């Protein structure tokens, strides 16, 4: 895999906790959809399994899976879970993003 995705330990811990509460496997699916205030937006879901053509990375037993089309837009990114006074959220640090919105959920290339 040329530009792997990284799931931080903080994000892995949060995914594991959510998955356990929902009785699902600890597999976080990151996808990219058109929309948002900057052109593209990140979407996070728990997945039951990785697809055959997904990119897969693993941290502390938690998998991060990304479909091939989305991978082209997020290659080399780091997925983190951050908590602040404004709330808690998964954040994507995307080296390909040329623009982003204030909330961090959308980006432009």
UniProtKB/TrEMBL annotation:
SUPFAM superfamilies: HesB-like domain (SSF89360)
Domain Core: 6-104
Gene3D superfamilies: HesB-like domain
Pfam families: Fe-S_biosyn
Protein name: Iron-sulfur cluster assembly accessory protein
Coiled coil: none
Source species: Tsuneonella flava
InterPro entries: ATAP, ATAP_core_dom, FeS_cluster_insertion_CS, HesB-like_dom_sf
């Amino acid at each position: 895999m040329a530009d792997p995705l990284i799931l931080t330990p903080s994000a892995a811990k949060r995914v594991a906790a959510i998955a356990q509460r929902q009785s699902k496997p600890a597999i976080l699916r990151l996808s990219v959809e058109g929309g948002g205030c900057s052109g593209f937006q990140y979407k996070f879901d728990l997945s039951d399994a990785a697809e055959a053509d997904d990119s897969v990375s693993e941290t502390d037993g938690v998998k991060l899976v990304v479909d091939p089309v989305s991978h082209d837009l997020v290659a080399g990114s780091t997925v983190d879970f951050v908590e602040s006074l404004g709330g808690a959220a998964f954040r994507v640090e995307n080296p390909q993003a040329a623009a982003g919105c204030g909330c961090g959920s959308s980006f432009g290339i």
